[in-house]
Amino acid sequence: MAKIRLKDIDTDPPKDIDKGDTKKKLSKILGELDELQNLLYAEGRHSILIVVQGMDAAGKDGLTRDVFTSMNPQGVNVKPFKEPTPEELSHDFLWRIHQHAPAKGMIEIFNRSHYEDILTTRVHGIIDDHTAKQRMKAINNFEHLLQEHNNTIVLKFYLHISHKEQRSRLEERMEIPQKMWKYNANDFIESKLWQRYMEYYEGAFEHCSDIPWHIIPSDKNWYKSYLVAKTLRDKLHSLNMKYPGMKK
Known about the structure:
By secondary structure, this protein is of the alpha/beta class. Helix content is 47%, strand content 13%.
């Protein structure tokens, strides 16, 4: 696909978007999602994989809370991917990922994902460009495998915040008691590597876009949640799902 330049994409909502109206629309969509998720679970023909990527403090946890907690917890799983364990490092990089691919009828949310293995690893020089390109090819094949052999719909979201907004949110974690538990001094170190992260994110968008990315302006949480919820709602509607009849 054409190269995405993140610096050219606004991190704020369009000027004509009203916050109050958008939050009302979000509330209506969440009601629809509750029914659609129940239908997905009952029909058991498709699964949904939600990939959520973004810099530290981009709002990944908040997105999960705002959009997915209104659904039946029996049909939704959240998997946060952190630094690989020694056991995970002894396997191929997708080994730990594939274990959490969604079963039919389920929605699985990856809070960070297999993309960390071509992002953080490149920023810190753990892998070289040749290895990164090999991994990108493997990622495309993996996502095609899920889509073609398990009826898995893969939705990939990058939560696009400005560097200024990120710094503000990180500083809040030192000042607001309810947010102090999220504080990690290393986040400020990573923030200094912003431009390198942007470069490698753009590389991921360019080379792993067989299944397209959704770049979500995320400086305002209410707009971010609305866009993600709407995208998921529209995709579920497009599946034309039906409740199965009584079993005989």
